[in-house]
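New to this. Help decode both lines:
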Amino acid sequence: MYKVKSKIKNIEALTLDEALKLAKEMNQLVTIEGHGIEIIGLFGVDAVLDGKCPDGSAYTWKKRRR
Protein backbone atom coordinates (compact mmCIF):
# COMPACT_ATOMS: atom_id res chain seq x y z
CA MET A 1 0.00 0.00 0.00
CA TYR A 2 1.30 3.45 -0.95
CA LYS A 3 0.08 6.78 0.43
CA VAL A 4 -0.02 9.86 -1.82
CA LYS A 5 -0.09 12.97 0.38
CA SER A 6 -0.54 16.63 -0.54
CA LYS A 7 -1.54 19.67 1.50
CA ILE A 8 -5.24 19.01 0.90
CA LYS A 9 -5.57 15.29 0.05
CA ASN A 10 -4.36 11.91 1.27
CA ILE A 11 -5.04 9.01 -1.12
CA GLU A 12 -4.03 5.36 -0.90
CA ALA A 13 -2.93 3.25 -3.88
CA LEU A 14 -2.18 -0.45 -4.14
CA THR A 15 0.86 -0.17 -6.42
CA LEU A 16 3.62 2.36 -7.03
CA ASP A 17 2.39 2.74 -10.62
CA GLU A 18 -1.08 3.74 -9.37
CA ALA A 19 0.48 6.14 -6.87
CA LEU A 20 2.53 7.85 -9.60
CA LYS A 21 -0.55 8.19 -11.84
CA LEU A 22 -2.50 9.75 -8.98
CA ALA A 23 0.36 12.15 -8.27
CA LYS A 24 0.42 13.26 -11.93
CA GLU A 25 -3.35 13.84 -11.90
CA MET A 26 -3.12 15.90 -8.70
CA ASN A 27 -0.63 18.23 -10.42
CA GLN A 28 0.85 19.56 -7.17
CA LEU A 29 3.72 18.82 -4.80
CA VAL A 30 3.12 15.42 -3.20
CA THR A 31 4.81 12.83 -1.02
CA ILE A 32 4.49 9.14 -1.91
CA GLU A 33 5.22 6.81 1.00
CA GLY A 34 5.18 3.04 1.20
CA HIS A 35 7.26 -0.13 1.40
CA GLY A 36 10.17 1.69 3.03
CA ILE A 37 10.46 4.49 0.46
CA GLU A 38 9.52 8.14 0.37
CA ILE A 39 9.37 10.13 -2.88
CA ILE A 40 8.70 13.86 -2.85
CA GLY A 41 8.07 15.96 -5.93
CA LEU A 42 5.86 17.47 -8.58
CA PHE A 43 5.14 14.67 -11.03
CA GLY A 44 4.38 15.07 -14.71
CA VAL A 45 5.99 16.58 -17.76
CA ASP A 46 6.29 20.20 -18.80
CA ALA A 47 6.03 20.93 -22.49
CA VAL A 48 7.91 23.13 -24.95
CA LEU A 49 5.34 25.34 -26.69
CA ASP A 50 6.13 27.65 -29.60
CA GLY A 51 9.87 27.19 -29.03
CA LYS A 52 9.69 28.27 -25.37
CA CYS A 53 10.38 26.29 -22.19
CA PRO A 54 7.88 26.48 -19.32
CA ASP A 55 10.04 29.18 -17.66
CA GLY A 56 9.87 31.35 -20.83
CA SER A 57 13.43 30.80 -22.04
CA ALA A 58 14.08 29.75 -25.64
CA TYR A 59 14.38 26.02 -26.37
CA THR A 60 17.50 25.76 -28.53
CA TRP A 61 18.68 22.16 -28.05
CA LYS A 62 19.38 20.24 -31.29
CA LYS A 63 20.61 16.71 -31.71
CA ARG A 64 24.00 16.74 -33.40
CA ARG A 65 25.01 13.78 -35.51
CA ARG A 66 28.61 12.96 -36.27
Strands lie at 2-5, 10-13, 30-34, 37-41. The mean pLDDT is 92. The radius of gyration is 16 Å.
